[in-house]
Structure formats: structure tokens, C-alpha cells
Amino acid sequence: MSTEITSNIIGQLQQDAQFPEWWKCAPVNIPFFENKKLTITYVGFEPDQDRSFIADADQAIANFLQLTATNRKAITALAYKNCTDFLEAVEYDEEDQPFKQLNDPHEIWNFIYPNEVFVSRRTKRDQDMYVQIDCECEWEQEHGLQLVFRQGKKITRISSIDGHVTEADAYDKPDEEDELLSKFHESGF
Q1: pTM of the predicted protein model
Q2: What superkingdom heads the lineage (predicted)?
Q3: Residue 15 included in any domain
């Protein structure tokens, strides 16, 4: 079996030696993060099991690569809320003071550092493709921050990194009760 696959969107992906269902490309410019170069990994791809995976993943990553810093700014309230919710849930630490003193919620992006992009098929319910960006963030240093976009189009989850692409999956609740996921509409961004 080949250890390389080709994406029509991001080029060659190499099979990960440790995780054979993971396929990584060379770093790609990510317009959402002002063209920061990040590795994109297709996760869960078994060539003999899911023949539409590459085409579906390519469509999701093509959608995601259309998102820009303007789209990132549009979800600032969600990123800021993640920070403030976390700070309210933990004991006060003097190192958290810069977050409490932000004059503009958009400044929260100065404390978020994207590391890698993952594209995977949801294993439950809709079986759709989700693009997940794993980030480090200064307020949640242990678990970081993930941004998840259904079909690469629209944010459907922002949370600590926990391996789930939806709140519905993370908390075993119906999709209709997942606030961001239930607002997703397939047409448009």
C-alpha cells in the first residue's frame, strides 16, 4: 500500500508512521490566520474503507481556505467567551490579569497560537467533514483551544482540545441541543 496520497487542494500527504490513519501535508498558508503556515492532517482515512474521504476532505479544506482574517474576527466573541468562562471557573491567578484588562475583545487573538489543522469525518450522526484547528492559548495552557468548522465553512465548536468535533458528541446530547452545530446551514458560509 502507498504511504502517500494526493489532495487536489493541498498536494501530497504522507502517511504518519505512528498513526497509519493520519496523512500529513507540508505546511500550507492559512488565510484565516493571516497566512501562517500550518500542517494539515487528514485523520481517520483508510483507503479501502472510505472511498469518498479524500474528495470530501478536499472540499472541506477548500472551503476553510476561503476563510480570512475577517471571518476570524467574526468569531471573536466566541473566543473571548471561552477565555472569560475559563477564568471564571478557575481560582484567581495574577498571570490572568492581562485577560481581565482587555479593552477590545479582538485583542484575545494575541493570546492564541494555532499549531495544526486536522480534517476528519465525524463518526457519529451526520458523518460530515470537520476542520479542526488546534491552538495553544495563554489562559488554558494545559488543554489549549480548538476551533472546529463543519465542512470547513462555519464555526460549530470552540472549546478546549478534547478530541470531539461537536459539543453534542462531547456531552452525548442531540445535535439540536448543540448551540453552534444546530445553527449550521449547508448553503453558504
Answers
A1: 0.93
A2: Bacteria
A3: yes
